[in-house]
Write the structure tokens for this entry.
Amino acid sequence: MSRTLKNIKHDDDLKQIARFAKALGHPTRLIILKYLDNKNCCFTGDLVEVLPIAQSTVSQHLKELKEAELIQGEVNPPKIKYCINQKNWEKAKKIFCEFFK
Amino acid sequence: MSRTLKNIKHDDDLKQIARFAKALGHPTRLIILKYLDNKNCCFTGDLVEVLPIAQSTVSQHLKELKEAELIQGEVNPPKIKYCINQKNWEKAKKIFCEFFK
DNA sequence: AAATCTTATCGTAAATTTACGATAAACTAT
DNA sequence: ATAGTTTATCGTAAATTTACGATAAGATTT
């Protein structure tokens, strides 16, 4: 594959898009993001009440969204308050729109 | 989870977004889509030349993009000409922009 | 100190994904 | 007919994902 400096930068972009897209690639995670977007913030338990899956599975999906940096968790013992990571949310929006041109 | 008619429709949307996002969730597939977008159309062999992975793996990625209906293949023996599925490409664009609001 | 609450993590199983080489299928050219 | 070209599919292995129940960790309340 051709490897100009331009292409390498482009590759990095594509990797970032793929990383975001992968995180968005499960219905449950989209529901979580929509929920967070509506309610602004919520606790894990709020999602567990609303989703038809086990608590541990919800926690796992939250972890993936956190690792993709699309959400962030703030410790508020014994609860953890999750919110959308606005900075990266905007970045995702931008990067996707750009990708689709 | 609450299940009004509205929510069920919404769920379908989310499933469709997840389906598209999953297909976009690998750098190689993004490169393929970008390539197709630039060149309009191409043969499998063109991609194999350009990508640092085996022919069978390229074919597998093409299959996934085809199954997500983001591309389509037209037999042109013994080659197969791939193009972006414009209808669904537009749908993806729309659906993603809507999701990000 | 003990019980309770909330959520992450562990262990595990099943399914899916990613990658490869080898082979088959389908058509063209010699 | 034979050889060559192109690309899908098969078989397989390793890694990752998805889901669950059980348990641990961390803090509060009793």
